[in-house]
Amino acid sequence: MIDPECDKNVFQLWKEQGEKLPFKVIRWTWSANRAFVVERIEIGNWPYGNAWGRPILNGVAGPQEKLSCAGSYQWKVVD
């Protein structure tokens, strides 16, 4: 099911958060037990770039990795 609140890319959300890190995001296609903690942002051509952080699955953080599809307009911030 498409979440209508997932309508921005990770870089726009970072800007809205006052460019503060880390912050947690989910993608509209992800289940409730999955998230990603963004720990580093590298802007290329605004509003795109690269984002790194840790995937979270069932409350367990994985190793740091580059977030794929960070530039797609399918993300929202979660607590």
Quickly list its features.
six-stranded antiparallel sheet, mainly beta, single chain
- DSSP strand tally: 6
SS field, number of helical segments: 1
Query: How many domain units?
Result: 1
Low-confidence stretches: none
Please tell me the overall pLDDT.
Answer: 95
Largest sheet: 6 strands, antiparallel
Q: What structural category arises from helix and sheet content?
A: mainly beta
Helix content: under 10%
Our estimate of the beta-strand percent is 35-45%
Taken from the alpha-carbon principal axes, the silhouette is: globular
Task: Explain how this protein is built.
The chain is mainly beta. It has one domain. The protein is 9% helix and 41% strand. It has 1 helix and 6 strands, in the order H-E-E-E-E-E-E. Strands 1, 2, 3, 4, 5 and 6 form a 6-stranded antiparallel sheet that branches. Strand 2 and strand 3 form a beta hairpin. The longest helix is centred in the N-terminal third of the chain and has 7 residues.
Describe the protein's topology:
Layout: H1 10-16, E1 23-27, E2 34-43, E3 49-57, E4 60-61, E5 65-66, E6 75-78
Antiparallel strand pairs: 1-2, 1-6, 2-3, 3-4, 3-5
Short characterization:
The chain is built from 1 helix and 6 strands; from the N terminus they run αββββββ. By secondary structure, it is mainly beta.
